[in-house]
Structure formats: structure tokens, C-alpha cells
Specification:
With about 700 residues, the protein is an alpha+beta fold.
Length: about 700
């Protein structure tokens, strides 16, 4: 609904200027400015009433907004509440909004945004000061905060590491970090705050013995960082954990570290109960517990190393202990990461160890540049440039590890039972002080064998199910998943909404238990039916694409897609009426288009592939008819070839009602009909009824 709002900005506006590829719809080329607004009031029929919530305001357009954090704002726009998940594997946006204390998103234009001096409150000055400090720090790193676009990869990484600011240039880099299991090194987290604390301790001890001053000074450094970086839940969680441990150390009383960690975890869950299912919370607490449990053996190893006179032996043992620690952290985190993301990276411990070196260098140089620039900007700039260099080196190394053959695997959805059991077995194998190597090896082997069994059985449908079709909600577009036995095929994979190839489709397939999809059928050359294909070829293991001759002869960007196909070795097969395809127990027959040149040029929609799939069942043959976006000409030909009854019909053109579409529904008399998600919602809200519903 249209909604008028008043509030205060709690951070500076950020403008995103996308660089869409040839496969993105033109609408995605529009810049968007994001405003984080603390509501003061909303406008109703009875006038303005008080409101307390956080919302995101998206202003679409080229006009620059001369606004700063702490400014009062009044605007009017289209407000949308968070929605529940529409696909398997999709995050529950309602729960995420509650966790982040967000009420929804309001979309408007810059022309409708006005300053509102009456919206100021006591917190406005604090938000303005905090934003000014962050802007000054950004300038010290050589980056203009008002024009943080077209950054190099190194600058984008440095900005993320030191100030926690994620820019558009960081998105391509973050994908490589996620696949190599090192995403925690790209965002400020407990690792970075721990590194900061260790650095402050070294500086304090370099000046002599300071006794009780050490813990308070480290705590002040952590609190100072919280002014520089956005206090997101992972950062707040890490800061609270470190401050609690420092407080316990400064008191001087004896305590059990694991017990203290358990109390800290309870306090964090009282603060944010829904974090119990958060991967970040699980890894933060779990890996910290592992490191604390390994603390005594590590201390004994350190004392033994100090006693050695052979420097080579000392270095070798130290390196071995470091590798063991990284491998232990990776091993304990593997089950939770596989369950949450479906990614398994054997190179993760080595990649994390190698990437830690440029991370430490970049962070140290970044903070040093801030300190030096406060005294002399001329001396601080070279340090910032050197920090950006190490940030770029880190991105290059991440890409290199991502390109290693068998460096990462995409797993189907694993069970919660395996996740819990594997975590227990791996903790026993890694952290047990008394167990011999044989039971440890058996524990690891048991976890691996269980995982292999789940991966092997995941692609199969349940017993008695001969075929299954799932229609995914991809906005204005089409994507169906047809399965039979251990075989799977996508029918179309496109949308006018962004990101379905990166997130929506892969996450849904993993939740459905689909591991690989070697075959994709593209019905016709419209972006909303194929533009996600380039992003899906690698993750889904696509080997062949069925399509039409009209698709191959279509103008740009289809030639670019075909060039990408050639580079990745994907076979393209042209189908015409009479051709047959097989998918497990399904037998498909192409009904349209017919071979040869048409008598008159056809619209792109009317060149859509129409395929009838038959599957034998105990109750007789069941039939699925996929239609793409066929319109009058194609529907007439299909009906001329007979009026076969089908069990499942894909309604033409996303379920849009036309007299010809109605005739097709009447002729085929389907038991079930698949329509477009967005189209059906619009029809339902407008009160219309038709074949789409």
C-alpha cells in the first residue's frame, strides 16, 4: 500500500549503480539509493500517528540525495511487508526481519523525499557524529565515501576489513570466498576483533609490564572499533564474547573457560533467541569452545617449543601446530556449513591458512594508516595503498583456490541428524585428549560414510513416485523442475527479477534433494525464460540444452549465451515437432514447433517448445504438457493435432488469460494447472478468476 512516513536516518545514504550483464533485463540498470530510516510516525486516514520501527527506503532514480545520517526525512512510497518463503530452501524473510528489527521496505523516488526538521531527536546527533567519523576514516584510506564506486578489488576488500562496508565491487569476490570456506575472512567478525585485541596486547607489552591496565585498554580498543564499523549481529556477538572473556580475566578469580562460554552463549540467546539456528552463532560458539578445549595441549606445546634449541625443529613444530588448529576449526565447522550452504571445500583449511597472512597485513596496515593519517595524511596514504595491495592479493589468492580442481563440491541437502551426529563425532576425533588414533579415525570414517550415503540417495525420488514436477516462484519468469527416477531437467530458467540463478534456483533444488541437473529445456528466446542459465551451468553440472532453431537465430544476447556454452562444453540440441526425449521413466514428444520455415514470421512467444511427457503408473499413463508462452498460432496447431487429455498443464504465458488459452484448458481438461506465480497473485488480488487460478 501507499504509505507516508517520517523518521531519522541512522546512517548515510548509499547509492548502488549496478552493472548488469547482457542477460539482465534493462530495468536492472537503474541506480538505487538506500536509506536506513528510524520511523517516528506514519500517515493514516486519521492523520499522522506515532510509530517506532526501522524500515529500508529504496529511492530509484539518478537524482542525488543531499542527506546525511541524523537528518529528518519525510516521504511517500509503496510499502511492502516481509513475506514468508515462496520456495524450498528460501530464507524466511519474516523471521529475518524480526531478527534485524526491520518492519519492511518502502520504495519511492528521490523527488518524493523531503527533509523534515521536526523528526530530529536526541539520537540524531550521535548518528551524525558516528557517520562523520566513518566518512573521515574512509577518506584516510583514500576512498571518498560519497563516491565509493569503481573501486579496485583491493580497495573494496580493505574497506570491508577495516570499516565493515560492503560495496558492489565486493560481490564477485565474495563468491570465491564462500566456495573455498573462507567467507569469515571477508567480513569483520570474531577473528578480526581477536586479531585487534592481540595487536593491542603486543603494543602494551612492548612498553613494559602494565598489569591491570591491559584488559581495560583492550576493551576500549574494541569499543572504539564499534564506532567505526556497522554494529551488525556477528560483530556485536564477537564484541560481547571478547569483552566478557576480558572481564573474567581482569577480575583475577579462577574460572572454567568452557563454563563461562556456555553462560555467554545463554546471554546471547536471551538477547537474540532466533540466533540459535544461525550459522554464524553456531560457528562462533562452537569453534571458540573447540579452541578453549584445545588450550591446555597448545600451552604445553608452546612451552615445549620454547625449551627447544633447534630453531628448525621449533619452526616445524610450530607450523604443524598451526595447521592442526586450522584443520580442527574446519573439521568442526564442516557439518554446520554443509547443512546451511550445501558447500563442502576440502581446500578450506589450507586456503584459510594462506589467506590469513594477507588479511592480517591488510587489517594491520589499514588501522595503522588510520592512526598515522590522524597526524599526517601524507604519511598515511602510502600505508593505505599498501593495505589495498594486500587486499587485492587476498582476492587473487581466493580466486586461485576457487579454481583448484575438486576444490569445492555442491552437496544436496543433508539431514539434520547427520549434521548433529557428524559434529559430535568430529569433536570427539579432534578434541579428545585420551582417545587413541584408531577410534578417532573410525569416528571420521563414520561421518564420511554417512554423508556419502546421503549424497548417493539424495537424487532419487521416494519409492512409488514415478515423476514429479515442481514450479518455482521466480517472480516474472518461469522455472520448472521435472524429475523421474534419478534424472532431473529444468524447463526454462529465467526471470525479470535479479539473483534467481545465484540463489533462488540452486537453494530450492538443494532443499528438494536435487544434486545435478544435466539437462535444461529452453522454450523460446525471451529473457524471462533463459537469463539464469549462465549462472546455473557450473553449479548444476548442465551438459545439454534442448531448444528451438528460433532460439539459435535470435539476436543478442543469445549469441553471447552460445559462446558461453561453447566455452563450458555444453551441447545444444535443436528440437522440432515429432522429436522424442527421455527423462527417467518419462517419455517426451515435441508437439511444436514444426520443422521448416513458417509461412509467415512468428512472434517469439509462438516459437515456444510444446512437449508432452508421458509416464506409466499403476493407474495408467499420466501426462504433463509444457507450453512455454505459446499464443494463438501455436495453440491452433496443437489443437488441430488432436485434443488429448492431460493430467498436468502448464498454462500458456505464465497463466495469462486469453480466449485461445481458455480453449486449450477446455480441450485438455487438466487435473492440475501450473500458472505464473506473480501473475496468479495479481489476478487473485484484483478479484479476477480464470485458468491461472
Amino acid at each position: 500500500r501507499l504509505l507516508g512516513v517520517r523518521g531519522v536516518l541512522d546512517r548515510d545514504p548509499r547509492t548502488t549503480r549496478p552493472a548488469p550483464s547482457s542477460f539482465d533485463p534493462p530495468s536492472l540498470d537503474e541506480p538505487v539509493t538506500r536509506l536506513d530510516l528510524r520511523l517516528k510516525a506514519i500517515e493514516t486516514d486519521a492523520g499522522w500517528i506515532r510509530a517506532r520501527a526501522r524500515i529500508v527506503v529504496l529511492a530509484r532514480g539518478d537524482r542525488a540525495l543531499d542527506l546525511r545520517a541524523g537528518d529528518g526525512v519525510r516521504t511517500l512510497g509503496r510499502f511492502a511487508l516481509p513475506r514468508p518463503p515462496a520456495n524450498p530452501g528460501e530464507p524466511d524473510w519474516v523471521l529475518l526481519a524480526r531478527k534485524n528489527n526491520s518492519a519492511g521496505v518502502l520504495t519511492t523516488t528521490p523527488e518524493l523525499i523531503e527533509t523534515d526538521a521536526g523528526a530530529h531527536d536526541a539520537r540524531s546527533a550521535w548518528w551524525r557524529v558516528r557517520a562523520d567519523v566513518r566518512a573521515a576514516a574512509s577518506r584516510m584510506l583514500g576512498i571518498d565515501p560519497r563516491r565509493a564506486t569503481d573501486l579496485t578489488a583491493g580497495q573494496a576488500v580493505l574497506l570491508a576489513l577495516v570499516l565493515g562496508e560492503r560495496t558492489d565491487e565486493l560481490e564477485p569476490i565474495s563468491t570465491a570466498f564462500q566456495r573455498t570456506g573462507t567467507a569469515h575472512l571477508l567480513a569483520i567478525s570474531g577473528f578480526h576483533l581477536g586479531m585487534l585485541a592481540a595487536g593491542v596486547v603486543l603494543l602494551i607489552r612492548a612498553t613494559g609490564e602494565r598489569g591491570g591496565w591491559e584488559a581495560p585498554l583492550v576493551a576500549l580498543a574494541i569499543l572504539a572499533i564499534l564506532i567505526l564499523v556497522p554494529v551488525r549481529p556477528p560483530i556485536a556477538r564477537a564484541a560481547f564474547l571478547l569483552l566478557a572473556l576480558l572481564g573474567a580475566e581482569s577480575i583475577g578469580r579462577r574460572y572454567d573457560r568452557l563454563t563461562l562460554l556456555a553462560w555467554i552463549a545463554c546471554a546471547l540467546l536471551i538477547w537474540r533467541p532466533m540466533d540459535v539456528m544461525s550459522l554464524g552463532f553456531q560457528l562462533s560458539v562452537g569453534i571458540t569452545a573447540l579452541l578453549l578445549a584445545m588450550g591446555d595441549p597448545a600451552g604445553r606445546s608452546a612451552r615445549w617449543l620454547i625449551a627447544q634449541t633447534d630453531s628448525g625443529r621449533r619452526f616445524g613444530a610450530s607450523a604443524l601446530a598451526t595447521i592442526r588448529t586450522y584443520a580442527a576449526c574446519w573439521g568442526v565447522g564442516v557439518p554446520a556449513i554443509a547443512y546451511a550452504t550445501g558447500v563442502f571445500s576440502p581446500v578450506a583449511p589450507i586456503a584459510a591458512l594462506v589467506l590469513t597472512l594477507p588479511v592480517v597485513a591488510a587489517v594491520a596496515l589499514g588501522y595503522l594508516a588510520l592512526a598515522v593519517s590522524a597526524l599526517s595524511p601524507l604519511l598515511g596514504r602510502p600505508l593505505a595503498m599498501l593495505g589495498a595491495h594486500f587486499g587485492g592479493l587476498r582476492a587473487t589468492l581466493a580466486d586461485w583456490f576457487d579454481a583448484v580442481p575438486l576444490g569445492s563440491f555442491q552437496l544436496p541437502g543433508v539431514s539434520l541428524a547427520w549434521t548433529i551426529a557428524a559434529s559430535v563425532l568430529l569433536v570427539f576425533a579432534i578434541a579428545s585428549r585420551r582417545a587413541r588414533w584408531t577410534p578417532r579415525a573410525l569416528a571420521v570414517a563414520a561421518a564420511g560414510a554417512w554423508l556419502a550415503l546421503e549424497v548417493a540417495l539424495a537424487p532419487a525420488l521416494p519409492a512409488g513416485v514415478r515423476a514429479r514436477i515442481d514450479t518455482l516462484a521466480v517472480g516474472n519468469g518461469t522455472c520448472h523442475v521435472i524429475r523421474s527416477g534419478r534424472s532431473a531437467m529444468l524447463v526454462d530458467a529465467g526471470s525479470l527479477s535479479p539473483g534467481i540463478g545465484e540463489r533462488t534456483v540452486p537453494d530450492a533444488l538443494r532443499a528438494l534433494g536435487v544434486h545435478r541437473v544435466p539437462t535444461v529445456l529452453i522454450t523460446h528466446p525471451n529473457l524471462d525464460h533463459y537469463n539464469a542459465l549462465p549462472e546455473l551451468i557450473g553449479p548444476l553440472g548442465v551438459e545439454r540444452v534442448f531448444t528451438t532453431r528460433a532460439f539459435l537465430n535470435a539476436p543478442a544476447p543469445v549469441p553471447e549465451l552460445l559462446a558461453l556454452r561453447d566455452a563450458q562444453g555444453v551441447e545444444v540440441v535443436v528440437l522440432e515437432a515429432g522429436d522424442r526425449i527421455a527423462l527417467g521413466e518419462l517419455q517426451g514428444e515435441v508437439l511444436w514447433p514444426v520443422g521448416g520455415a513458417p509461412a509467415r514470421p512468428l512472434a517469439a512467444n509462438d516459437t515456444s517448445l510444446v512437449v508432452r511427457f508421458d509416464v506409466p503408473t499403476d493407474a495408467g499413463v499420466r501426462t504433463i504438457l509444457t507450453t512455454g508462452d505459446i499464443q494463438r498460432a501455436a495453440i491452433a496447431v496443437v489443437l488441430e493435432r488432436g485434443r488429448p487429455r492431460v493430467d498436468v498443464l502448464e498454462l500458456p504465458h505464465h497463466g495469462s488469460f486469453t480466449p485461445e488459452g481458455g480453449a486449450l484448458v477446455e480441450a485438455t481438461d487438466p487435473r492440475d494447472a501450473l500458472g505464473g506465480f506473480e501473475n496468479s497473485v495479481k489476478q487473485d488480488r484484483s478479484g479476477q478468476t480464470g485458468p491461472g487460478l
